[in-house]
Amino acid sequence: MVDRGASALSLPDDWPAHPDPILALNRMGSFDWDLDTGLFHMDAQAHEVFDLRPDEYDGHPETLAVRVPRPEAYRLDGLVAQAMKDGSENYGAYFRIRRRDGSLRWTHTQGYIRRDETGRPRRIIGIVRDATQEFEEIEARQDQAAQDEARRRQTNVVQLTTAALAHARTVQDVIDVLKDTHGLTHLGATSLVMGLVEAGRIRLIAEGPAGSFVPGTLVTRIDEPYPMGEVVRTLAPRFIESPEEFAESYPILWPHITDLNITSAAYLPLIVQAKPIGAMGLLYSDRRGFTPDERNVLVALGSSIAQSLQRAMFYEQEKDLATGLQQAMLPRTIPSVPGADVAVRYRAGSAAGSLGRDIGGDWYDLIPLPGGRVGAVIGDVQGHDTHAAAVMGQLRIVLRAYAAEGHTPATVMARASVFLHELDTDRFATCLYAEADLSTGVVQVVRAGHIDPLIRQTDGTCRRIAVEGGLPLGLSAEFGRLEYPVGIIELDPGHTLLLCTDGLIEQPGADLDDGMQTLAAMVKTGPDDVRDLAERLIDVAEERGGDDDVALLLLRRRSLDTPKSGGRLQQHVAPGDPEALTQARHMIRAAVLAWDARERADEIELVADELITNALMHTEGSAVVTLRVLTATDRRLRVDVEDSSSALPRRRDAGEAGVSGRGLLLVDLLTDVWGVEARGGGKCVWCEFVVGQGS
């Protein structure tokens, strides 16, 4: 060991004739090396350092070879020669000497080179001292530092692993953390095994590296002679410190792992609340034995892993329950709809660190209705828990029931709001209900606090449809505001109606409008097929992640290759409900255009409106208007208006100034044929219009 930074010795020319007493007090010997004569003078303390009696030393450096081993002598000679050659004033070095009892001891020397006027080395004055205690202290400090560093690394591994395990949600997440480069491999383990306790057995859930699986150990009984079974039985760790100990303790297992060159192993029980849930084994190929600190670190690590595993197992159980409940609440199948292609998707949110939050109140539904109509529902109950899912399931059922009973979309939404308000819950829900007539393309939309729908056209253009809405379900009944305006959308052949919950559009740092624009852009560039498009949108939501659920419903009206040759539309019109009357008029107008009866559109609309108005004015109940296309020799469009009165209409003379009495005259004038039929407790006034040649 070289010490080239030693300070120069400031000594008189006649030194060591008068050695400094301080040197003697510090048990340092001195020397004076005359380079001209080659004599190497030492004082008594220096003789003692070299363990030489005065009569054993003749003043020549070669005599010291009896105490200085040859490799050390070569190293010292080289050091001194280099110092004299490169003009150094001093040098220093540690070297070993062999004492007369054969023991080796560390020694330190420090020399000062005296030169003449030409720079030629003439003399070296220096000291020697025993450095054994110093080196022992240095080695002790180094050993302590190494131990501290090893303990720090182990503690760091525990901290890193524990921190990583805090984000593990599933059992596989726990396994991945342990196998990751930032996991237990930092402890130098060659192989990892882990098993869970199940009904008196241990099921292996992780083993590595690849190819280290031992046949017959996938499932073992706890009472079998395997180390994981032992630590589960005893609830105590098992540290195996040598191959011989492993082979002797577990003769069944040892022959199967000899190829791994295992030299030691640590098996840890995974205990939670004094109950073993599994066991873990760490196998090493480059160490024998474990220090007390290493054992403590591994036991602490086992405790942390056990807690994470238990949390992951609880999470998976909760998730299975939540998923099962969610699937039970959503429609098991989506019915096929003549004249439309439909796709639905659902993605559960991922609320990190919250058990039982992988379930929410988002839902979709598709309701077949009479007359070729279909109801599409999208909704979101407040909250992410089983209660939200239960409320969602009840809402889905009542919405389906109200729609199937023939209520108008506004009535369906109002009744659903009253139902939720009267339900024993503090939850509210947003919802959008769209009732589509696929024959005409007329879509009646009612919105209860939900986001607007989107329409994708045949050229890919996608736009948001602004629909006036009411309060969310539950809140509207609470505040006595049950009005739900009905928006009318015309869905042309090939166009797609898109309904979704806000989980598909909401992103951190972006407002709702930005999210809708982003969604519209994705829809525009997405696949034409509705199933492929739905899959694309839900994949994007999955990649983005997020805590909120996503429900999605796409309905694409199919293109018609030939004009519609048949169809049937029906609308209920209640007295005192101007909105229902407006909807009926809109339905008639759209149907006439869709059925290629444009040339008689004004006549049909006028007659139908007259018949509906007469039914509402002269009866006490509601009217039901039905439109259909008859296929015969001549293609005819028929309008039926039913009411609950058995009184038959009759022609009357309205007089020159009268307003009433002209209705039937108008019907008789504009229609090709009309009549009245008795219908049980009421009647049906019907009329027909020839609109083209039959097919």
Walkthrough of the structure:
There is one protein chain. This protein has 695 residues and is α+β, with helices and mostly antiparallel strands. It has 17 helices and 26 strands. The strands form 5 sheets. Strands 8-7-6-11-10-9 form a 6-stranded antiparallel beta sheet, with helices on both faces. Helix 9 packs parallel to helix 10 and helix 15 runs antiparallel to helix 16. The longest helix is centred in the middle third of the chain and has 38 residues. About 3% of the residues have low confidence.
Question: Secondary-structure map with pairings?
Answer:
Elements: H1 21-25, E1 28-34, E2 40-42, H2 44-49, H3 70-85, E3 90-98, E4 104-115, E5 121-130, H4 132-165, H5 171-179, E6 191-198, E7 201-208, E8 219-221, H6 227-234, E9 238-240, H7 243-249, H8 254-257, E10 264-272, E11 275-284, H9 292-329, E12 340-347, E13 361-369, E14 373-381, H10 386-404, H11 409-422, E15 429-437, E16 442-448, E17 454-456, E18 462-464, H12 475-478, E19 486-490, E20 496-500, H13 512-525, H14 530-544, E21 550-557, E22 567-573, H15 578-594, H16 601-618, E23 623-630, E24 634-643, H17 663-670, E25 673-679, E26 682-693
Antiparallel strand pairs: 1-2, 1-5, 3-4, 4-5, 6-7, 6-11, 7-8, 9-10, 10-11, 12-21, 13-14, 14-15, 15-16, 16-19, 17-18, 17-20, 20-21, 22-23, 23-24, 24-26, 25-26
